[in-house]
Design a protein that fits this description.
two-stranded antiparallel ribbon, 124 residues, 59% helix
Length: 124
């Protein structure tokens, strides 16, 4: 949870930091990538069901994630065939963006009945 979070501050959070065998790295990285891919697939599905069209941002992001997945698989294959471990560090930067518009009343009540953790788990 972000405490004392001010409008113009950026929080840096270490997501991954360690040395991994290629097999361990595959599990960590592909799990993360696959979750992101599934998130955007669900977003697209939801948009198609609700509005009759794909979510443009998710469609674009899916292409980028597919390329990232191919790149990771290639790096993993190279490291494995050459017998190397992989040092992986992933930092994420979090800062406030635009203010969220007030959700519709019925949407608002559905959101407030869940904890933040439940909302995050539901997204993944």
């Amino acid at each position: 949870m972000l405490k004392n979070y001010h409008m113009n501050t950026t929080e840096n959070v270490t997501l991954i930091n360690g040395v991994f065998t290629p097999q361990e790295a595959r599990e960590v990285l592909l799990t993360l990538l696959n979750h992101k891919i599934n998130f955007h697939r669900l977003r697209n599905f939801s948009s198609e069901e609700r509005f009759g069209k794909k979510d443009e941002a998710s469609t674009k992001r899916l292409k980028e994630l597919d390329e990232s997945r191919k790149q990771v698989l290639s790096l993993l294959a190279d490291a494995e065939s050459a017998g190397y471990k992989l040092e992986i560090e992933s930092m994420i930067n979090i800062r406030k963006g635009e203010k969220i518009e007030e959700p519709l009343q019925e949407e608002k009540s559905a959101i407030t009945t869940k904890t933040v953790e439940d909302q995050i788990i539901q997204l993944w």
